[in-house]
Write a structure and sequence with these properties.
Layout lengths: L6 H12 L6 H13 L2 H9 L15 H7 L3 H9 L14 H8 L2 H9 L14 H7 L3 H9 L6
Helix pairs in contact: 2-3, 2-4, 4-5, 4-6, 5-7, 6-7, 6-8, 7-9, 8-9
């Protein structure tokens, strides 16, 4: 049977496998990209081979945890937390994984982050908290989760 995957998909899959060898900058940034996609198996393999779980990319100072949280990948978030990802690392504008998950309305991710002790009232550089971000976007379920964990409404 002929492989029907497009050439670029096959090339990307080969690149992911070859990038799992150490904790170099390229591999750490590849970890962030894989977390963006929520590819739990590859995240696990990359961490086992030495990728740094708390590496912050040069672009926007993001981490794998923030990327997984931003895209609603709860399983990847749980894995990264289990492997020692720091909850309250800030990107270049002061947002944490909880901030970006709240902004995007990813309730399962917000619940996981809060369950691991994320700072519920952290303020980004513009003063916005996760509650403000979720409220502004109309994410009622996330707003309720944050209030239940003691987020300040004032």
């Amino acid at each position: 049977m002929k492989d029907s995957k497009p050439f670029l998909v096959k090339l990307f899959e080969k690149a992911k496998v070859s990038l799992m060898g150490d904790g170099s900058v390229e591999n750490n940034e590849a970890l962030i990209n894989v977390a963006f996609d929520g590819d739990v198996r590859t995240v696990q393999a990359m961490l086992e081979k030495g990728a740094m779980v708390n590496y912050q990319a040069d672009v926007h100072s993001i981490t794998a945890l923030q990327m997984a949280a931003q895209n609603g990948h709860a399983a990847a978030v749980e894995l990264l937390l289990d492997k020692g990802a720091k909850l309250d690392v800030q990107d270049d504008i002061g947002r944490t994984a909880l901030s970006v998950a709240s902004l995007k309305g990813h309730a399962a991710v917000v619940e996981a982050l809060l369950g691991h002790g994320a700072m519920v009232d952290h303020q980004a550089n513009n003063g916005a908290t996760a509650l403000i971000m979720a409220s502004a976007e109309g994410h009622a379920a996330v707003v309720q989760l944050l209030l239940d964990k003691g987020a300040k409404a004032d």
